[in-house]
Amino acid sequence: MSQCSQSTDGFIKTLFGPRVGILCSQDAEIISRRNNLSFAELIRPFCTINSEIHVHDSNNQAYVIRDLHITTCDMRCSPADENAVKQLLSDVVSDAANILETSKTLSLSSDGYSVAVNMSCPWFEAYRDTLTATAPQKPHEFINHCPACMLVVSSRHPNPVEEFGKLSQHQNQIQHSTQHHSVRWMVPNTLKYYVLLHDNSHPDFERAKSVMNDLQSMYGNNNCYLLRINSKDASETQQLPDPWGCFLNRKLPEMATEANGINMSDIPSNDLSADPLSVSSTEVHPSDKKWMQDLKQKANISDKGYGCCLTLADHEGLKTFMHDFASRGLIPHIEKLIRNFSEQIASRKAIHRSIFRATRTFFGGGKTSSAPALKNYGSGGLESPELQVRKLADLYFLCQMYDQAYHYYHAVRKDFANEQVWIHAAGASEMAALANFMQPRSQRAYPAHYVDSAIDTYSTTTSDDYLALRCGLVSLECLRMQGLYAEASAQLFRLTSEVDDLRSAILLEQIAHCFLRTQKPQLRKFAFHIVLAGHRYGKVSQRSCALLCYRSALQVYRGSGWNLAEDHINFTIGRQSFNLKQLEVACESFSKLLNGSKQPTSQQAMFLHEYLQVAKRNTEATKAVTNLPVPLINHSSIAARNATSGGSVIPDSKWKLLEESVQTVVTKESPQNSSIFTGIGKSSSFKAVVNEPLWVDVTVCNPLQVALSLANVGLIYKFTKEDESEAEINVPPIKEFIISEDSTNVLTFEINPQSIGDLQLVGISYQLSIAKLTGFTSQTSISTLDLTGQQLFRSGANTSIRVCPSAPKLEVIYENFPHKMLCGELKSNKVCLANIGQCNMKNVKVAYGSHTKCLFTPPDKTLLDAQAHFLRVTGQSYEGEVCQVQTLVHRELKPNESVELLCWIHAPSSDNIHPLNLYFYYESAGNIDGQLKSRTLKYSNDVFTRPSLSVQPLVNWDNSRQGALISVNVTNISQSCAFNGAKLLCTSKDWVLGAISQTPSPEIDVFQSAKVYFEANNIHENLEGNLQKLDLLEKIGMTSSAFSVEGNNLSFKSVSDFGNILSLENPGYLLVALEWQARFQGETLVGQHYLHLSELVDSKVSLSKIGLLKNSNAAEDSSQSLVALHQLVKWKLEFERSKQHDFITSGACFVKVKIVLQNQYDCELNVDVNGMDSNQTQTTGIPAASTRFLWAGKCLSKFTMQPKKTHTVTMKACISSAGVYNLNSFSVWAVPTRIMNKIPLLPQNCHYSCLVTINDANYKP
């Protein structure tokens, strides 16, 4: 709940303090009105007695009263009607909302939500105090009845004593009359306190003292008081405190004076026969004597504020007066009443109860099912004992003897409940709970159920909304002091209704604040109830309070995903702020509705319309430029460029590596040029050249489902000129630009710099309106509005442009760029490099990524040169990103001079859209101060590739050959072309390609496959590494030929992402390019796919393949090296393929077999050849080949093989019958000598069928 300026004890003591009636004569009222106050208003700030007052109970035990508050009731004022009270409550809430304190902010965080709420709600306290002050006295609540009355007469009256007698008589008349019930009295013998009011501006003080003596002799010293006021004239200027402002609801203009100085409507008449409670008429009563008329004429009312005729001594006199009245008059009178009631209760209560119970028993007074009507206690005659007990409890409560008060309240509560007098029972329950709470050291817990039952009775049984509300407000303070905020919120929620929106708004706001005070703050509940409170405030036009509520709720709902709720709150804040003339706040709230709204299109259009209306009104009022919220600007994408096409509009990190690669090459080639790149990456300024147009691209996004119209879009900039030319900058505006709903567009501004200097881009200005698009019917109800405003660029964006002196400018023109290619296709295009600048250029280079297979050559280079280059580049394997940098022009290019080159593009092997990003670099040949030393051009284009061929090579080892047999499965996966395998190309120094078949490669149609065979022979001599070409289209005698291709004059370098220049190296295995040809739409297409034959390694990597380094005896434990260790040795068999033998003459046929073994690696081997291992016999698929045979003679040979050398072993096969036999039925074991102590001999995998046919000479078919 909110923080109040008044403590809980102070609030309860003020609400349930002694009430005193005020009855003034007309002359006394006139003297008081000199201070713009009635007498009751004059003494109101001094009704709180801060000093201690002693009091005794019926047992003569002393107690101390602290902070006693006395409430005054002007008996001549009639109570306001219900409508006037409602208007007064509304006014005090409005006034209090304008004096909000910001020092009581509470910051909380819970469940991912954070709020900072101002806990000061002065309108709640003002509403509460005004409600209780204007409430009428209830018949059953004696605590609010008056036990005393002040009679006030001025000392200037001709006969003050007689006037006091008339006032006393009139008070008796009022008290015992049945017609007037606005002021109620606690007991018949009301205390009358006689106050003689003396105006210090009148010199006759002695007469006042004489009159005072007469009064004291008649009424006693303790019941009379001489009060002196008006010690200074109103015209005297003296700054004194104003204690009356916080107590009064009326304003000074309402007390305007007439020409005679007195507004007669504010002065009561001395005619006591008139209605004492009605406001007197405006005419002077006939009973007014000449002295009265003189008094009215001399007592001029000042407009200088309240208490303008009082001094500080008068203030102290008023305090002394109220203390004297309380300590010598009021409290002793209450003591007397307590003793009297105690004696009466002791003597009457027992008799009354016994008679009542006996009568009810005799006449069968059992309880009925229906509740009886409320009994009219105390209406004449003797009061019942229950009412006397209630009065006694109220008197104890007034004297702050809360223990005794609780005792009597608790006892009488049960009696009233038994008698079914529900309103009295509810009142006693309420006061019992308060008496228990006010006890400083009570052992009893706060009886919240007493309050609940009282609220239920007030709300349902008696339908008294004021009593229920007052009970809830008082209980709220009690529960707050005990930290029971959940219980407090539940009690308050029962008091809300649809009848009184202002009351419900006040209560809902306090309920929301209770949720902030719980042990774990419940911020979502707080937000929900504070929105309900804001809604109720809005219904009663309390816009300031509603605005504060919705602002508090927005802290919870903002960014929580509750988009519709957030939009509702922002919209309401905008509307309420607009009604309160807070146009800037309204603009800010409506602007938030235009970013990421989830509302339907019509609602978004209405939001935009509301924003345009409010923002236009604000612009007209403040004459300031509006910062428009839509469209959204992507500040990170703001970019300047010096080309209209072929350039990258949006900067991307992919260009960074290319730029760094060029810097590396240029710095390595010419270290003195390293100063060119000093500061690159640190300065965000874009470099432009004077008299060269440049373009600034601003990406804007429309987040709405409503199309936006931007008119007269201009670029806001600031230019600092450094030369003496008259012209500066020319930026033509964009006349009109339509941004479709939920789309992103780019605003392009052309800038023509005509002077050298610094250009700073500030923002854009435009006229915003709702676009009129056909078919968009939801905008028909939206009127046409346009708003002129701007959007400023965020700091840190790419908004700085440096305009430099004249420099060269490169233009790249492609002739028929190949946007569509087959996978693996190789195509050349003419490229024109032209200098369209005003100075010479030199050192033209281009950089592109390793995944972009591109090559620039002079026009005289052939396809074979490009094929050799791509073959070498494809065989390179580096870690990380690698860029290729190539020098294009080795001489200076003058202005308007151009050079033609060929650009070879090798399409990737995967079908997709592949970007071709080229980063051109060139330098200025001149040496002008401030001139750009180097410039760059970013070229980006896309290549769409379609499927062509799928190649799958397979390596087959053949021991009968020097090398390996390679079969390539070529499949046509295109949909429109037929292919031919044209050539095989390689650049290996260890392998030579050879033809197998003498048949030309066949044509491969769509979805068909073909086999291409060739052999690769390992030559132990180092070749030059020239390009080898094996033509597949020749019919007879296909041979391999070598060609020398000069690649060094292409000035080609590879740069890693670490800034190192890499050299082209042998890939370590055989890499073969399969060139193919295809016919498509009458054009011959050429391309190549690559065969990565990793099984065929060169001599440099042979040892590493088996896990051995050159000078190491350690073997690497890997699956790859383990497989290689089983392929250390190959062998072939030399024998007679067919033999005839007479098995009758000799039962055994011997076949001599020569085994030639080849060491495949550059290391010494230990080898075993074992013919006794019969498990190695292999079948060939021919049934006769499964016949067993034996090796005769020496069957086991152990020897050492030198690196790359051969060894021959001779064995004899003993065959006992005719048939077909596989002679490759022995086992070979080998291991490198260096590691033979670490691993055993390993079986070698080189098994193939070596068949011999044995015929029987005696067999005749």
From TrEMBL:
Residues 1128-1230 form the TPPC8 C-terminal Ig-like domain. InterPro entries: Ig_TPPC8_1st (IPR058541), Ig_TPPC8_2nd (IPR058538), Ig_TPPC8_C (IPR057651), TRAPP_III_complex_Trs85 (IPR024420). Pfam families: Ig_TPPC8_1st, Ig_TPPC8_2nd, Ig_TPPC8_C, TRAPPC-Trs85. Residues 653-794 form the TPPC8 first Ig-like domain. Residues 823-936 form the TPPC8 second Ig-like domain. This is Trafficking protein particle complex subunit 8. It comes from Clavelina lepadiformis (Light-bulb sea squirt).
